[in-house]
Amino acid sequence: MSIDIETARRVAKLARIAVPENELPELANEFSAILGFIEQLNEVDVDGIEPMTSVTPQRLKRRDDVVNDGGQQEAVLKNAPDAREGFFAVPKVVE
């Protein structure tokens, strides 16, 4: 598939990328090369092949899911402009 300069200009505009007019032909060629590579990948028969997350088999490290408070209440509240009784104090918004 070939991308023309007008399509490259439109893609750049949609992506909010400022591309000078003299660089549009090169951008169109790059887009065409990318689409050509994708077409090559689509030709590969992948029926019956499991997706992989890595080329080397590895087991993910796991940890126990333990609920805790993080142990940082004092450090967090130290940054608050107003803290009372272990909580953030905020102005009343409902009467």
TrEMBL record:
User: What are the GO BP annotations of this UniProt entry?
Assistant: glutaminyl-tRNAGln biosynthesis via transamidation; regulation of translational fidelity; translation
Q: Which GO terms describe its molecular function?
A: asparaginyl-tRNA synthase (glutamine-hydrolyzing) activity; ATP binding; glutaminyl-tRNA synthase (glutamine-hydrolyzing) activity; transferase activity
Q: Which Pfam families match?
A: GatC
Specify the superkingdom: Bacteria
Q: Report keywords, A-Z.
A: ATP-binding, Ligase, Nucleotide-binding, Protein biosynthesis, Transferase
InterPro entries cross-referenced by the UniProt entry: Asp/Glu-ADT_sf_sub_c, GatC
Protein EC: 6.3.5.-
Q: Which SUPFAM superfamilies match?
A: Glu-tRNAGln amidotransferase C subunit (SSF141000)
Q: How does it assemble?
A: Heterotrimer of A, B and C subunits.
| Recorded family membership | Belongs to the GatC family.
Function as written in the Swiss-Prot or TrEMBL entry: Allows the formation of correctly charged Asn-tRNA(Asn) or Gln-tRNA(Gln) through the transamidation of misacylated Asp-tRNA(Asn) or Glu-tRNA(Gln) in organisms which lack either or both of asparaginyl-tRNA or glutaminyl-tRNA synthetases. The reaction takes place in the presence of glutamine and ATP through an activated phospho-Asp-tRNA(Asn) or phospho-Glu-tRNA(Gln).
This protein's name: Aspartyl/glutamyl-tRNA(Asn/Gln) amidotransferase subunit C
